[in-house]
Design a protein that fits this description.
By secondary structure, the protein is an alpha+beta fold. The protein folds into three domains: about 5-175, no CATH class; about 325-540, SET domain (Beta-clip-like), CATH 2.170.270; about 620-850, no CATH class. Helices cover about 40% and strands about 10% of the residues. A hairpin with a 5-residue loop joins strand 5 (about 430-435) and strand 6 (about 440-445). The termini are far apart. Bound molecules: S-adenosylmethionine. The site of S-adenosylmethionine has 18 residues, from strand 6 and strand 12. Keywords: Chromosome, Methyltransferase, Nucleus, S-adenosyl-L-methionine, Transferase. It comes from Zasmidium cellare ATCC 36951. InterPro entries: AWS_dom, Post-SET_dom, SET2_Histone-Lys_MeTrsfase, SET_dom, SET_dom_sf.
Length: about 850
């Protein structure tokens, strides 16, 4: 070799071949035989391997060292001079290049080219020879033209496939063989579909041909362009072949060897599609299996898969509504939820009374027996053609030859197994309270269409007993739990299983059916055609006869609701029912009108009492109490703020009385105490009656009186005004009076006792306890003197007030005496409150009694 050639520098390299264009043509051709590794295209000048391959290697270098010098970085990259490469590889049978630009022989040794006779290679060979019409003749004497090169495509494809097969190894080949066996195909008799797939696999868009875009104006042979679908299928097939086996688990054999355990079923090509309940086709199939089911159309045959579906596609196909899994949702009874009372649970039917006799005597149907064939693996036996199923018998060991695992007509056995487990998921239902329909049953798991949910158990009674119970025991009940079992026999679920709580719906999701289990009829609730989702309320159509004339309104809320519980009526029945209802409606209207008239009369009577009258109110009503307190407060504030009150207060402070008051002042008349008292009381009565008549002025006067009283009370505690009054107006001593000594000592007390404006009432109030019972807002006071003598406790209403006035005088007399004696005592009262005329009257007269308070005025 010329050493000059060997001294290839980076600079030279970059100029001679931008993009790592390395001239390896003649050298590679020469060396390829003795140095197979040279077939790996060199990638860059720094690649020592490339240098060697281009004969720039010193021949003296020991060949054994070559592998050691090959670095990791010396890997091929993706830029080649394709023309050169193809020429360089001319001596080989074929050259192939895939999309990444790698030569096939970088993966597979040339020496193995002969082993290309893999099944896939054969297959491709066949497919190519059969379907492709690629012109492979070139004009004689001409240099290999483009089209000639095109003729080698076939070989290249074969090479590629062969190499792939060889690379993937025995396992893949075995798989392909197995797949072929499953499809029942020999090499020769492949289905047209498979051929098509293979063709598409070979030629698909973006497939082998597309990868071989050696020249822009490549003449594509005439064959149909692959569709999108076939392309997908082809890709799937390719993936099926090339994917490593990941399904299955390893298991150890007896001699400790690890062998793969293969799935017997799954998403494999050649198997039936799943009978998933959420799948419309399979649902129909199940419906068809049930006798008496509404849908009787023949279910379509399940399709056989020609290729394995990708998991993603099967998920998309079997889409269903999202439901929170049971263990997350678990709509179970919460603490505090209402539980049904009055329910005695029994899980097995009990024969009661004459039903037992009837049961024993009743003619039992001869036990039916089915002759269903053993089903194919993975299929359910005793389908819709099963004789037992048709006769409404459950299969069992006595009447069915199939193994329980093969038989699909053993719902009660299935239920028994589930109940034995005992968890709430296995039981699958629970009682819940509904809005308008009492209790109901809710699913706490999902149920397949037609799957048994629960048994309806209870007391089995005769028809006659049922009628008696209806008439006597249940006549006042709103809910009945009676269900006909067989002729003359009824299940009374009043004492029974949870199924008794299932409500009616005109669009139900369950159905109740009777099955004979070992010759014994039993009722059960089955999921309807759409299955049941977790959390759904279970309902079935009661479709019962009404006992009596009344029909219960239905609150199922379904779009097709009939409006009533019970079965749909025929025209005559509907007419009769409409007539009855019309009558009832008329009666109800008449009753309502009567009640309205009565109410109106009451209202009129009430209104006739006058506009201000709002009726007596209960005195212990907290609202009234609050209102009264508020009114009282407002009145007090108004009184304190009224200009008249202030004027009077000012005058009182100055020591002069208003002229009007002065005129009526008993002090001026200097009459006898009794007369003065009478005059004062009369005056108060007059004022109070004006107030009672709602006279605005009088109310103001009343305020004034009250203010005055307060003023006077202050006076009594030693104000200047009182002292003045005492000095100037002090009466002559009364030698005969038993109080004269006291009068002389204190003077003022007596003088002020009987005047409206006198301090009598206020002074008395000071000495006498006023009780204002908080719980009972009636205002009143137990009058007692210092000796503890009870003076008065009079209950008063407006009607007897006048009479009481008479008593009042006597009371006051006694009181007066008491007051004289106890004048010096410490005040023992709290400040009296003003709010109503009655209260004021009581204040001013000193008469305290249990008074019923009112809003406004009494009539
Ligand atoms: C067999 S019981 C069902 C359980 C019942 N809800 C309970 O609380 O016991 C039948 C009674 O439930 C009530 N009911 C059931 N479904 C109803 C519906 N759709 N509308 C109104 N009431 C219903 C009626 O009172 C009926 O007599």
């Amino acid at each position: 070799m010329a050493p000059a050639t060997a001294l290839l520098t980076r600079a030279e390299s970059s100029t001679s071949s931008i993009g790592s264009h390395i001239d390896v043509g003649p050298l590679a051709a020469d060396d390829s035989a003795d140095e197979p590794s040279a077939s790996t295209p060199p990638t860059s000048v720094s690649d020592s391997r490339s240098m060697n391959s281009s004969k720039a290697v010193d021949d003296s270098a020991p060949p054994a060292e070559e592998p050691a010098r090959r670095t990791r970085r010396a890997r091929p990259t993706s830029s080649y001079n394709l023309k050169q490469l193809s020429t360089a590889q001319q001596p080989l049978t074929t050259t192939s290049r895939n999309a990444s630009g790698l030569s096939g022989r970088t993966l597979v040794d040339n020496a193995k080219d002969d082993e290309r006779d893999t099944p896939l290679g054969d297959k491709l060979d066949k497919a190519l020879n059969k379907d492709w019409e690629i012109p492979n003749e070139s004009p004689k004497g001409k240099l290999p033209s483009r089209i000639q090169r095109q003729s080698s495509i076939r070989d290249r494809v074969k090479n590629a496939a062969g190499k792939a097969g060889s690379v993937l190894g025995k396992r893949t080949r075995d798989m392909v063989e197995t797949g072929r066996r499953r499809l029942g195909m020999t090499k020769e008799e492949q289905s047209p579909q498979k051929n098509k797939l293979l063709k598409e696999l070979d030629l698909g868009k973006g497939g082998v041909l597309d990868e071989m875009d050696l020249e822009e104006d490549f003449a594509v042979p005439t064959f149909a362009r692959p569709t999108k679908r076939s392309k997908t299928e082809a890709k799937t097939a390719l993936r099926e072949i090339t994917q490593p086996m990941t399904i299955g688990q390893f298991q150890k054999t007896s001699d400790g060897k690890k062998v793969k355990k293969w799935q017997p079923a799954g998403l494999f090509a050649g198997q039936d599609e799943d009978a998933d309940p959420s799948h419309a086709g399979s649902r129909k199939k199940l419906q068809k299996k049930r006798p008496g089911s509404s849908t009787s159309e023949a279910a379509p045959e399940p399709k056989k898969r020609s290729v394995m579906p990708l998991p993603m596609f099967s998920y998309l196909d079997n889409s269903r509504d999202f439901v929170i899994p049971y263990d997350v949702f678990a709509p179970s009874w919460k603490k505090g939820d209402e539980k049904p009372k009055d329910w005695h649970k029994i899980n097995r039917n009990r024969l009661v009374g004459d039903a037992k006799e009837l049961w024993d005597r009743s003619e039992r149907l001869a036990q039916s027996a089915c002759v269903c064939p053993i089903p194919a693996k993975g299929e359910a036996g005793c389908d819709e053609t099963c004789l037992n199923r048709v006769m409404q018998y459950e299969c069992g060991k006595d009447n069915c030859n199939l193994d329980p695992s093969q038989c699909s007509n053993r719902p009660f056995a299935e239920l028994g197994e589930r109940i034995k487990k005992g968890g709430s998921f296995d039981i699958g239902v629970e009682v819940v309270k509904t809005d308008k329909r009492g209790f109901g049953i809710r699913a706490c798991r999902s149920f397949r269409p037609g799957q048994i949910i629960m048994e309806y158990t209870g007391e089995i009674i005769s028809e006659a007993e049922c009628q008696r119970r209806m008439r006597e025991d249940y006549k006042d009940k709103a809910c009945y739990y009676l269900m006909e079992l067989e002729r003359n026999l009824v299940i009374d679920g009043t004492r029974g299983s949870m199924a008794r709580f299932i409500n009616h719906s005109c669009d139900p999701n369950c159905e109740v059916r009777m099955l004979k289990v070992g010759g014994t009829p039993r009722m059960a609730v089955f999921a309807g055609d759409s299955g049941i989702m977790t959390g759904e309320e279970l309902t079935y159509d009661y479709n019962f006869d009404n006992f009596g004339e009344t029909r219960q309104p239905c609150y199922c809320g379904a779009g097709n609701c009939r409006g009533y519980l019970g079965k749909r009526l025929n025209a005559a029945e509907q007419k009769k029912m409409a007539k009855l209802e019309e009558e009832k409606r008329r009666e109800a209207a008449a009753l309502a009108a009567k009640a309205a008239a009565k109410e109106l009369a009451k209202k009129k009577e009430k209104d006739s009492r006058g506009s201000g009258w709002r009726g007596w109110v209960p005195v212990d009503d907290p609202e009234v109490k609050a209102k009264l307190r508020e009114q009282k407060k407002q009145a007090e504030e108004a009184a304190m703020n009224s200009s008249r009150a202030q004027r009077l207060a000012a005058r009182a402070r100055r020591g002069s009385m208003p002229a009007s008051e002065a005129k009526t002042s008993p002090m001026k008349k200097r009459s006898s105490p009794r007369r003065r008292k009478t005059a004062a009381v009369d005056e108060i009565k007059r004022r109070v009656s004006r107030v009672a008549d709602n006279d605005e002025d009088a109310i103001e006067d009343e305020d004034a009186i009250i203010v005055k009283k307060n003023t006077l009370r202050r006076t009594s505690t030693g104000s200047r005004f009182t002292e003045d009054l005492d000095m100037e107006k002090r009466p002559a001593s009364r030698p005969n009076s038993r109080h004269s000594a006291y009068n002389r000592a204190t003077g003022i007390v007596k003088r002020t006792t009987y005047s409206v404006k006198s301090a009598k009432s206020s002074m008395d109030l000071k000495r006498q306890p006023i009780t204002e019972d908080d719980d009972n807002i009636t205002l009143g006071k137990q009058i007692s003197n210092s000796n503890g003598r009870s003076m008065s406790k009079v209950s008063s209403t407006k009607e007897d007030e006048d009479e009481e006035d008479e008593d009042e005088m006597d009371v006051d007399d006694d009181e007066d005496e008491a007051s004289e004696e106890d004048d010096e005592e410490e005040p023992m009262i709290e400040k009296p409150k003003r709010n109503s005329s009655i209260f004021s009257l009581a204040n001013l007269t000193g008469k305290w009694k249990q008074t019923k308070l009112t809003f406004g005025k009494a009539p």
